[in-house]
């Protein structure tokens, strides 16, 4: 039977919900109860809401409205809870940012401003030295797409390649596409020697990708060691201005980051071993957590440390039928779903092997695909996406990935098709995930944002204005095609334990995983010699200066593995 105190609590919460035209779902109700909070207002009172400075932000913020029909207007989606950058010296610009995201390509190619960087020190010369032996990032084109509720539509201002009425084209070998246009996307570097991104002047510049879904494609003849990652469009615009106009007010908004394919040399102090070999590029979503778009971290945490599987819901049936499969019993053997050094989400990329990557953000999470394009036709598993070009309008999903080597996250270099999922954390999942954490700026904001979404009170003038769960505004583009849960990760002890190509003393330009899982470094090329460069970084990258935050989060999570 319910006690009088419990009855009073439930009535107070129900009264708040009904007065605002919505209702809290079970996990969010349970969150309030478990934290001893007698109302949503009590939770709100434990958190600080930032105050935006519209006049200062306007020159840099992208246009909330889209010219593409069927695309979400982000006016109501301002984020005002959950990240330290919303306060202090950066608060005026960062507070109230909206869900607009775009790509960055980072390489070790030298340029007139920078010759060295922490991600590129002591690497094989082929990674940064142009010439016939170059093995770094040989890119054909990069394309950006906005989902219009039925298809993905190319965004010209965020696409680097030869644009035509049919789509985009590019060939690294012929010096077309990316090679012709990359100078127009030069962006502020720092931790990587060279960076490229779409940026511009606020509302008149690139809008980036927004709900209901977005997608980015990168095609390369070689992607042995480099990075393809995403930041907020606001940050891209701010840092672009810093590069060209000397805008140095310290107003970078590093409050969200997605790293689908990233080299790891810069994650650790010099001379430290890498988590895999040099050309195993990792996926990570926990470098910067916004408070309005929560991430899972470990499977056990996503399931509230309970001894039953509930999240992500699309895998419940699979786990019922396969209870001992990877991720289905995280209380027995945990799995990292946010990637990073403690995870298994990585792609081994061979030197001079063509690959096509596609990254989709939708209601289910971050979907990261990689294909080896057909040697004759250049086609991939996504109709309209190929080695040397992509169509202007694409169907909403590719053919299902069927190769077993591409369904367990630790993807080898010769696997023809692969998919990795970093699961989303929509409202009910957010309350469950936050229930095991302190009521703080991150997890308290995650819970409040979940409740704001369920009650429809997140918008300007709403009772919970600025508390957001952006996952609630994304559409399901049906990327999930009856995949096993291993696409989100496998236990780390499933990975090989010994590496011989993951330290500066044995880096090579042609590392490959043997069929038995051991790593072997080819020493037949001159690239096996260490680079003699010892120059210090010319600058610090404000957009990622807090990389140590990732290390502290990973250290905390290590207790689960």
Descriptive account of the structure:
The protein has 561 residues and is α+β, with helices and mostly antiparallel strands. It is 18% helix and 17% strand. The chain is built from 13 helices and 20 strands. Strands 6-7-1-9-10-11-12-17 form an eight-stranded mixed β-sheet. Strands 16-3-2-8-13-14-18 form a seven-stranded antiparallel β-sheet, with no helix packed on it.
Summarize the structure.
This protein has 561 residues and is of the alpha+beta class.
Q: Strand share of the residues?
A: 15-25%
Mean pLDDT: 88
- Strand arrangement in the largest pleated sheet: 6-7-1-9-10-11-12-17
Instruction: Please tell me what the overall shape is.
Output: globular
Number of E-state strands: 20
Low-confidence stretches: 519-561
Oligomer: single chain
* Count of helical regions: 13
- Structural class computed from helices and strand pairing: alpha+beta
> What is the terminal-to-terminal distance?
40 Å
Largest sheet: 8 strands, mixed
Q: Radius of gyration over alpha carbons?
A: 23 Å
Helix amount, in percent? 10-25%
List key phrases describing it.
8-stranded mixed β-sheet, alpha+beta, 561 residues
Would you spell out the secondary-structure blueprint of this structure?
Elements (H helix, E strand, L loop, with lengths): L3 H16 L6 H9 L5 H6 L8 H4 L33 H4 L6 E7 L17 H4 L8 E11 L4 E3 L7 E2 L3 E3 L8 H4 L4 E2 L6 E3 L17 E10 L3 E6 H13 L11 E6 L17 E5 L14 H4 L13 H6 L24 E3 L6 E8 L2 E7 L17 E3 L1 E2 L15 E2 L5 E7 L3 H8 L8 H13 L55 E3 L5 E3 L25 H11 L4
Parallel strand pairs: 12-17
Antiparallel strand pairs: 1-7, 1-9, 2-3, 2-8, 3-16, 4-5, 5-15, 6-7, 8-13, 9-10, 10-11, 11-12, 13-14, 14-18, 19-20
Helix pairs in contact: 2-11, 11-12
């Amino acid at each position: 039977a319910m006690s009088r105190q419990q009855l009073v609590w439930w009535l107070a919460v129900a009264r708040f919900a009904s007065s605002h035209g919505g209702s809290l779902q079970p996990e969010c109700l349970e969150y309030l109860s478990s934290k001893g909070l007698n109302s949503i207002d009590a939770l709100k009172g434990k958190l600080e809401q930032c105050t935006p400075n519209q006049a200062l932000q306007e020159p840099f913020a992208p246009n909330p409205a889209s010219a593409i029909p069927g695309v979400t207007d982000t006016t109501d989606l301002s984020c005002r809870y959950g990240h330290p950058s919303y306060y202090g010296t950066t608060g005026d610009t960062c507070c109230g940012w909206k869900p607009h995201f775009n790509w960055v390509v980072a390489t070790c190619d030298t340029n007139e401003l920078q010759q060295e960087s922490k991600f590129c020190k002591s690497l094989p010369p082929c990674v940064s030295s142009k010439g016939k032996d170059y093995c770094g990032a040989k890119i054909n084109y990069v394309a950006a797409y906005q989902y219009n509720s039925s298809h993905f539509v190319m965004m010209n201002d965020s696409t680097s390649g030869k644009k035509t009425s049919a789509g985009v084209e590019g060939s690294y070998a012929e010096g077309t596409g990316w090679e012709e246009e990359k100078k127009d996307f030069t962006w502020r570097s720092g931790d990587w020697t060279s960076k490229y991104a779409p940026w511009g002047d606020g509302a008149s510049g690139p809008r980036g990708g927004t709900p209901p879904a977005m997608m980015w494609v990168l095609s390369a003849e070689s992607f042995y060691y480099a990075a393809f990652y995403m930041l907020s469009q606001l940050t891209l615009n701010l840092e672009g201005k810093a590069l060209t106009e000397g805008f140095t007010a310290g107003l970078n908004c590093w409050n969200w980051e997605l790293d689908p394919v990233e080299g790891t040399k810069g994650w650790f102090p010099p001379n430290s071993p890498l988590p895999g070999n040099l050309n195993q590029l990792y996926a990570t979503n926990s470098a910067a957590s916004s408070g309005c778009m929560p991430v899972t971290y470990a499977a056990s945490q996503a399931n509230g440390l309970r001894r039953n599987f509930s999240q992500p819901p699309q895998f419940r049936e699979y786990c019922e039928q396969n209870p001992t499969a990877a991720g289905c019993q995280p209380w027995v053997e945990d799995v990292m779903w946010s990637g990073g050094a403690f995870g298994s989400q990585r792609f081994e990329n061979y030197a001079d092997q063509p690959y096509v990557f596609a990254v989709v953000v939708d209601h289910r999470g971050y979907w990261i695909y990689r294909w080896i394009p057909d040697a004759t036709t250049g086609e991939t598993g996504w109709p309209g996406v190929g080695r040397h070009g992509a169509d202007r309008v694409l169907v909403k999903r590719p053919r299902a990935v069927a190769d077993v080597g591409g369904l367990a996250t630790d993807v080898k270099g010769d696997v023809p098709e692969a998919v990795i999922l970093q699961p989303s954390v929509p409202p009910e999942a957010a309350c469950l995930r936050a229930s095991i954490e302190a009521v703080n700026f991150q997890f308290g904001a995650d819970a409040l944002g979940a409740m704001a979404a369920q009650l429809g009170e997140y918008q300007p003038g709403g009772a919970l204005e600025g508390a957001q769960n952006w996952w609630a505004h994304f559409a399901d583009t049906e990327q999930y095609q009856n995949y096993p849960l291993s696409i989100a990760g496998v236990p780390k002890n499933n990975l090989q334990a010994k590496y011989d190509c993951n330290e500066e003393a044995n880096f090579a330009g042609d590392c490959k995983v043997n069929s038995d899982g051991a790593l072997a470094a080819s020493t037949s090329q001159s690239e096996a010699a260490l680079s003699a460069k010892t120059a210090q970084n010319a600058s610090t990258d404000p957009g990622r200066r807090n990389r140590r935050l990732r290390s502290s989060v990973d250290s905390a999570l290590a207790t689960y593995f």
